[in-house]
Amino acid sequence: MTKTAQLLPGTLDMLILKAISLKPLHGYGVLLRIGQISKDALEITQGSLYPALYRLEHQGLIEAEWGESDNKRKARFYRLTPAGRQRMKEEAASWNRLVAAIAAAMSATPQEV
Amino acid sequence: MLPQLRSFARMVFGRREFERSMAEEMQFHLDTLTDDLIRSGLAPEDARRQARLAFGAEASHQEECREARGVRFVGELRQDLRYAVRQLARSPGFTIAAVLSLALGIGANSAIFGLMDAVLFRTLPIANPAQLYFLGHGSGKDRELSSNYPLLERYRASGIFASVTSSLQTTLTVETPEGLERVEGQYVSGNYHATIGAPFAMGHGFSDEPDRPDGRPLVAVISDGYWGRRFGRDPNIVGKTLSSGGRTFTIVGVTAPGFHGLTSGIRTDITLPMSVRALSDPSFLGARDRWISLRLVARLRPNQAETQALAAAGDLFQRYWAEPESERRPGDVRRAALLPAGRGSDGLRRTFGLALGVLLGMVGIVLLIACANVANLSFARGTVRAKEMAVRLSLGASRARLVRQMLTESLLLALAGGALGGLVASLSTSMITTAMAVGERPVIVDASVNWHVLAFTASVSILTSVLVGLAPALRSSKVDVTPMLKESAAAQRSGPLTVGRWLVVGQLALSALVICVAALLARSVMNMRSFDPGFTRASTVLFNIDAGDRSMTPERRATFFNELDSRLRARPGVLAVTFTQRSPLDESTQIRRIEVPGLAISDASPSASTNIVTPDFFRVFGMRVTRGREFTDSDRAGSDPVAVVDETLVRAYFGTSDPLGRRIVVGVDREPYTIVGVVRSARFESLRDEPSRTVYTALAQSKLGSKELVGDVRRITVAVHVQSNPGALASAIRGDVAALSRHVTVAYVRTMEQQLDAALMRERLMARLSLGYGVLALLLSLVGLYGIASFEVTRRTRDIGIRMALGATQRRVWSAVLSETATTSAIGITVGIGAAMAATQLIASFLFGVTPRDSVTMGVVAAVLMVTALMAGWIPARRAASIAPAQALKGL
């Protein structure tokens, strides 16, 4: 079993946006994609994905359409709207700033203080 | 915001679809996960179990999804609504009282707002209304829109504006198969329709024909209303003709509904070219010695600033004004003014703006009082329902949820009140507009319900619900659970009641304010009606005749006047008959420059009102001639022109010198009149204004031609003084005129009393409405007072029982309860009268014969309020006194 990390609050939305920015996906596909791009390092209760998807759709960041899945079944595919793409960029940028700041803080040596 | 709304709307309207889709989506997830797990080697049974485990609680995920979409809110709202309906149905007395009082309050507000919208705010349905301006002059109260045709030509030639046009309001006599008909009309320049961008339902406007008559066929444009009324919406109306004043006009267009010209309050039905006006009076286009009611309307160039246009127009006007050909008083300086025309002329706005504002304030107060009543009732119910609240709180309902529940109830009440209020509004609006449509030219206000008014009513209703519901809701949800569940309803705090008392104090104060205003206005109307304006008005019938038809030559007209005069005098009970250009309070003004050769007048620009009359004039109106003589039949054409002046003029210009025998020059007419008499002054223009200096001349001596320097005598008012029963004569008049001539129309047959009422229309309307609002406010407050007093008696039944058991007499109890009511009322009334003292200055301009802080009025209002308040408190006090101590103590 690999080591997994608890998801930080508020980051699920960002991950979803990232996942479907690459290609329209259904809910299950979103989970697989997050697992794939995070190398299965994040723990997500699968069902909790849906409230997040519905919230993002309500905010107009993603939109959904019924289509056919790989296993030839009807599935709901999500795709990014322009507003969603914009939001993803902003979140990524602010996330990177945060990570850089925290990393810098955590690697501070006694000499620097 | 938009995506949220869309997704929310999908939710509300596609609830079932949403649920199906959500379930299907989650099922797909589970199925695919299970398949993947099977493929990775798990047994189907295990795979399904593990998939479900990994997915988590489906029901709670679904609930979260619903919440994400706002569906949960909708679901709860439905629940709240159902609960609220049940609650309200359970106490029908409360519900009916609340809805009715809110309906009256909201309805009154909507009605007044609807009038304000129609009179003050509505923009005309024309192209780019903001670019359109009237070219007037003067400033402030002195501002006028009068002009003359040469000024129009000057503005046009200057090129200051994109275009300049003109219109002249008039009343036309139209020949119809059923006889002659009087119709509101206007003469306009050829570029009128193009300049203002008038909307057309059919055909087109005038095609820039010249205003100078050039023999081309005459055309007319009619309004949508007239098209329906007179032509039954004939689809082939364009090309048909109508006849007026002996000329025939071809109809070229019908304006769109809702457009009635630029004059506010008047529906102009027929529009004729300005050349027709010039045909009947060739000097009209060149006359500079008169400032007439010709309205100049200009459209600014695109992007032209108002200030820039005004500066250019100002220069032009000042030059024109200073030229010697203009009739102006020496030393009198006037400046050009641009008045926005996009909402039509401002006559109605000036007359009714403040009045409507005051009325809106009053109905706002009535609504506040109604809100206070409902809030008070809710407080009382809140106390009763405290137990219910406690139960719900202890079962885990959040406080916010309870507040929302109670707000839903008050919203429901307010919306029901608003809906019923719409009915109240439409009834009172039609009452008010009917009351406004009196007089010679009835004010017509289109206050039909539109989306402005609906939006206003809806917002007022919602605001009301918050006012009514929030405080009681917050208070009753703040229940301490444990004691409330343990103890009986008798052990409640007195908190809400204190709030209730203060609400009643506020109600009484506001009612006192409204009633003071109403009383002042009513007294003013009474004062005006009993005021002696210097003329008698009893038993006088007046009517207008229009003898302006082309076939009526000056000689024929004179003959007609004589014949009508004899015919009227022959009727039984007729004491005197006069033909006059102006009658008292007919809202006309006519001020001319005067000169008295050889008399040093201190006034730099002496002027006087003028009137043309026949000999009996002073007898008909009971005006005593104090010196010299009145007109006689021997003052006729050809004899020495004579004039009678009034005492005000004598006082102002003659001082102690004798006016009799002096000569007076009126207007630019160089031929002087000899003063033969002095008559008592009367308030002809307005009851509020001191009598103006007046010169009377004799009709028989005025030139009955079309170019009449002192005014148009083709249209004249006949006043008949009768012994009694003016109504009988009024009904005979049309027959008398018709028997004498087919070319003369009779209009506006009325008694002098009716004319006075019409002149006092605004004041009477305000007094009536504010009295209505005052009574309503008082009734609502008394209900509030009664409610709080009787509630308190009920609540304190045990207290009172104990006190009586300990020896308090009935009288003691009675007076204790009543004195509490008296204290509450006294505070409220005092505050209200104080507020009235401060506020009534606002209505000073509507008052007559009474000052805004009239102490008698205030005192009477305070006394009446106190007495009625004590009457309302009487019943609960009696009930308190009749409590049987034994029963009161046992009953608990």
Description:
The complex is a heterodimer of chains A (113) and B (892). With 113 residues, chain A is an alpha+beta fold. Chain A has helices spanning 11-22, 27-37, 49-58, 82-106; strands at 25-26, 62-68, 74-80. A three-stranded antiparallel beta sheet of chain A has the order 1-3-2. In chain A, strand 2 and strand 3 (74-80) form a beta hairpin. In chain A, helix 1 (11-22) packs across helix 2. The longest helix of chain A is centred in the last third of the chain and has 25 residues, at 82-106. Chain A is elongated. The N and C termini of chain A lie far apart (39 Å). By secondary structure, chain B is of the alpha+beta class. Chain B is 53% helix and 15% strand. Chain B is built from 27 helices and 21 strands. In chain B, strand 2 and strand 3 form a beta hairpin. The two termini of chain B are 57 Å apart. Residues 488-495 and 704-711 of chain B have low confidence and may be disordered. The A-B interface holds A 26-28, 45-48, 50-52, 54-55, 57-60, 69, 71, 73-76, 83 and B 2-4, 7-8, 21-22, 24-26, 28-29, 31-33, 35, 54-58, 60-62, 64-65, 67-70.
Provide keyphrases for this structure.
heterodimer, A: 113 residues, alpha+beta, three-stranded antiparallel β-sheet, 3 strands, 51% helix, 14% strand, elongated, B: 892 residues, six-stranded mixed β-barrel, six-stranded mixed beta barrel, globular
Secondary structure elements and pairings:
The complex is a heterodimer of chains A (113) and B (892).
Chain A: H1 11-22, E1 25-26, H2 27-37, H3 49-58, E2 62-68, E3 74-80, H4 82-106
Antiparallel strand pairs in A: 1-3, 2-3
Helix pairs in contact in A: 1-2, 1-4
Chain B: H1 2-13, H2 15-39, H3 44-55, H4 58-68, H5 71-90, H6 92-121, E1 132-137, H7 149-158, E2 163-176, E3 179-188, H8 192-196, E4 200-203, E5 219-222, H9 224-231, E6 241-244, E7 247-255, E8 270-273, H10 274-280, E9 295-299, H11 306-322, E10 336-340, H12 347-384, H13 386-394, H14 399-436, H15 451-477, H16 481-486, H17 495-530, E11 540-546, H18 554-569, E12 574-580, E13 591-595, E14 607-613, H19 617-620, E15 625-628, E16 642-646, H20 647-654, E17 663-666, E18 673-679, E19 694-698, E20 715-722, H21 726-740, E21 745-751, H22 752-759, H23 761-795, H24 797-805, H25 810-839, H26 855-881, H27 885-890
Parallel strand pairs in B: 3-8, 5-7, 14-19, 16-18
Antiparallel strand pairs in B: 1-9, 1-10, 2-3, 2-6, 2-9, 4-7, 5-8, 6-7, 11-20, 11-21, 12-20, 13-14, 13-17, 15-18, 16-19, 17-18
Helix pairs in contact in B: 2-3, 5-14, 6-12, 6-14, 6-15, 7-11, 12-15, 12-17, 12-23, 14-15, 17-23, 17-25, 17-26, 18-21, 23-26, 25-26
